[in-house]
Write a structure and sequence with these properties.
33% of the residues lie in helices and 20% in strands. It is α/β, with parallel strands linked by helices. Helix 2 (27-35) packs across helix 11 (271-294) and helix 4 crosses helix 9 (228-238). It starts with a strand and ends with a helix.
């Protein structure tokens, strides 16, 4: 059995990482870093890295169509048409600069989702049909393909939104649609209620991941665990079983396991939340995998951490566990030149 563990958010900016991890006791990660064969490659957005595990080599995979397929109750959608993600987000201003907040913090309720969907439907009537899922993910089923290149949502969170504006032949049109959506959202009573309650307002949409479902996917895995709706959609389109994060992954199937608990705090540079999540990850995920590798229950373990500055890959087989002369290493040391 082989396990490929993806850890988006593991890597911080190189200059900040030593200060974030300097006193963390991470015995499992340190052991794995010491024994593993390490390599570094070009940085990738997590969504792009994930799509490449299924044979999609484009720098902008059709994340909208694939994620829509992974939504609960998708009933076979999105079919053969083009889609684009249109996710409700909160654009905050810090020191005069617009920053995209973590969408998970919005915690959209069912009545709010319904109100937003009705309010925004007319805005997109000329380009397609807008819908908003129970997950809080928004989509436009496009009447025609959209020639737009945009940063994935996970890349945009915590970053200056002005630096991540869409590009492409249709970019100006979608910037205009975003402005119209902002006007419609500003008028909603739900935002007045949220502001009065001290909750973040929904003041814009983030467009990304346009395209249509690929004809077929190829992947070395037999099972996928975690990763949310995009991973579920990829697994579904590839004909693989998918399990939610935290579910027991039993059996002898080669598995892609995605643990994204570090991603949000890393994007927001929230060192306290990241350190807390890292300690739990070391204890709950890395330690059991290391133990299975030492005992021979696991034949091969690969750990991948796509980041903004590099992508780190660790590979360990049964023979690597016997290299007793290799000492544990910290994450900062493993990335040092």
């Amino acid at each position: 059995m082989q396990v490929h563990l993806a850890l988006p958010g593991l890597l911080w900016p190189e200059r900040a990482l030593p200060d974030v991890v300097f006193d963390l006791d991470l015995p499992a990660l340190s052991w794995l870093l010491g024994r593993a064969r390490r390599r570094q490659s070009a940085p990738l957005p997590f969504e792009t890295w994930l799509a490449r595990r299924f044979g999609l080599e484009s720098d902008q995979p059709p994340a909208a169509a694939l994620r829509r397929l992974g939504e609960p109750g998708s009933n076979g959608e999105p079919g053969s048409g083009d889609w684009i993600c249109a996710d409700p987000v909160h654009l905050a201003f810090e020191h005069g600069h617009p920053l995209l907040a973590d969408p998970a913090a919005l915690d959209l309720q069912a009545d709010e989702i319904a109100e937003i969907a009705v309010a925004l439907a007319p805005t997109f009537s000329t380009v397609g049909k807008f819908s908003l899922q129970a997950s809080g993910h928004g989509y436009v089923a496009l009447a025609a393909p959209a020639a737009i290149l945009a940063a994935p949502l996970s890349t945009a969170v915590g970053r200056g939104a002005a630096m991540l504006l869409p590009r492409g032949d249709d970019a100006a049109r979608w910037v205009r649609l975003a402005n119209e959506a902002q006007i419609a959202l500003h008028a909603l009573e739900l935002n007045q209620r949220r502001e009065a309650a001290g909750r973040p307002t929904i003041n814009t949409l983030w467009f990304w991941g346009s395209g249509r479902l690929p004809d077929a996917l190829t992947t070395p895995y037999q099972k996928v665990g975690g990763g949310g709706t995009l991973a579920r959609g990829l697994a579904r389109h590839a004909g693989l079983p998918w399990q939610a994060a935290g579910d027991s992954m039993t059996g002898n199937s080669d598995t892609l396991l995605i643990d994204d608990r570090l991603l949000a705090p890393a994007r927001q540079l929230d060192a306290g939340a990241w350190r807390h999540a890292m300690l739990a990850l070391d204890r709950e995920v890395l330690a059991p995998l290391a133990a299975d590798l030492r005992r021979g229950r696991l034949g091969q373990l690969t750990i991948s951490a796509p980041g903004d500055e590099t992508t780190l890959d660790l590979e360990l087989g049964r023979s690597d566990t016997l290299r007793f002369w290799r000492r544990p290493r910290s994450l900062a040391d493993a990335l040092a030149p």
